[in-house]
Amino acid sequence: MAGTFVVYSDKTAIAIELIGFCRGSGKRAVALAFDAAAAQEYAARGAERVLLIECGQNLPEAYAKAVAGVLEREGAEGFIVGSTVRGREMAARVAGYLKWPLVSDVSKLVCEEKELVTERPAYGGAVVQQERVKLPAVVTVPAGKFEPAATSGAGAEVVTLEAQPDERTVLLERASVEKQGADLGSAEKIVCAGMGFAKKEDLKLAFDLAAVIGAEVGCSRSVAEERNWLPTDVYIGISGATVKPRLYLSIGVSGQVQHVVGIRDSRVIAAIDLNENAPIFKAADYGIVGDLYEVVPALIEALKNC
Question: How many alpha carbons fall within 13 Å on the CB side of residue 298?
Fold first, then answer.
């Protein structure tokens, strides 16, 4: 399936996943980078060509018009963009300049001969909407949807481009955001705490279980935003983190559809909850109906003795 897709993300790991998607779809992957380190990474991770725009103090999205010109010169059929705040900004601007259709935040993306087939949740995750969009098109994709491209033996050519930014947008200041929680997007195992916990102090059970199995700790949205027991960085669901661990183990999580949308790509889902009718059990591969205050200590003890 010939053709060229240009990929971009301000998160290097997502861009490498998008390169993996292009290669798996039989497309020529051209990676767009705004710093030299990312460009070298893409060159070693399967991109067939890397285009480097050195933006200095300017914001990458200030080069959206230049990027649109790059896509035209490359004869690209698609612009596949990581679904971050910056990526969505870039995607929308480029789609506008090129007058290409844009599908945002897809949960599934399949390339066919002359079109892309996408899926994305709608109505708060209650339904999945499937769409077909003819190429050329712009699509934004969250992290964790594709396997990262493997390291290739031969590095691709890195071409530095001269481009003029849109000077109507000016960067005034940079300030670091202090991340408080774990990086759930790359976690292999996750223990998720829900509203079944009675007190904040009781979350120690979740952390103790996570320590025994080598997992990170996440939570449901209500635990982070209503009770403020854990950082908002670590709540999982349609408006929070989308995760893809080998093992997702929920404790006291009811499993509303908005939460399940964020975990459904997990390889194995296990759940502990007192309510046998909790929706989480419909999504789970394994479930224990019981009081978390009895089940979790027993589970920790059993795992320690394995």
Answer: 8
User: How far, rounded to the nearest angstrom, does the alpha carbon of residue 39 sit from its chain's CA centroid?
Assistant: 20
pLDDT, one tens digit per residue, over 48-87 is 999 999 887 778 888 999 999 999 999 999 999 999 989 9
- The CA-based dihedral angle spanning residues 11, 138, 18, 120, taken in that order and rounded to the nearest 10 degrees: 90
Q: Is-cis flag, bond preceding 142, omega within 30? A: no
Cα distance between residue 306 and residue 300, in whole Å: 10
Residues 231, 178: Cα–Cα separation, whole Å: 11
Within 13 Å, how many C-alpha atoms sit on residue 303's CB side? 13
Read out DSSP for the chain? ---EEEEE-SSHHHHHHHHHHHHHTTPEEEEEESSHHHHHHHHHTT-SEEEEE--TTS-GGGGHHHHHHHHHHHT-SEEEEE-SHHHHHHHHHHHHHHT--EE-S-SEEEE-SSEEEEEEEEGGGTEEEEEEEESSEEEEE-TTSSPPPPPPSSPPEEEEE-----TTS-----------S--GGG-SEEEEE-TT-SSGGGGHHHHHHHHHHT-EEEE-HIIIIIS--S-GGGBBSTTSB----SEEEEES----HHHHTTTTT-SEEEEEES-TT-THHHH-SEEEES-HHHHHHHHHHHHHT-
Q: Where does the pLDDT of residue 232 fall: very low under 50, low under 70, confident under 90, or very high at 90 and above? A: confident
